[in-house]
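Ligand-bound model needed. heme C.
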Amino acid sequence: MHFKQAIAAVAIAASAAVCAGAAASEPSNLGERYASTCASCHGANGVPLGGAVPGLAGQSSEYIINAMAEFKTGKRQATIMHQIAKGYSDRQIELLAAYFAAQKQ
Ligand code: HEC
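Prediction:
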């Protein structure tokens, strides 16, 4: 093997190891991180800003998971949430729901 090929092989092996590590251990504040993308409408930590957007703080996680599923399928009518919900996997929604359920209203 030429030197350059050897370097490339080592780099590929190293990046594969990093990816495997990330998949194995999920950061504990992942739900909070995802929730920051909801804050502009639902308020910081899901505490309602007033107006038309419902608060999420203290809602049960079942309620949030169910609402997101219904937005995804279109069962529940929405102005915006049907589009937002489609961008999140089941696991991401679980983490978001657990985060908001743990926030004080
Ligand atoms: C652009 C503004 C906006 C963003 C960003 C947003 N939402 Fe919403 N959300 C709304 C509005 C408006 C509604 C009312 C339903 C509708 O018209 O879409 C709503 C409703 C909901 C509901 C139903 C609550 C209830 O009691 O009826 C849930 C659950 C929800 N959003 C979760 C989320 C989550 C989780 C995120 C972040 C991943 C998020 N939303 C990001 C605007 C937003």
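The chain has a mean pLDDT of 86.
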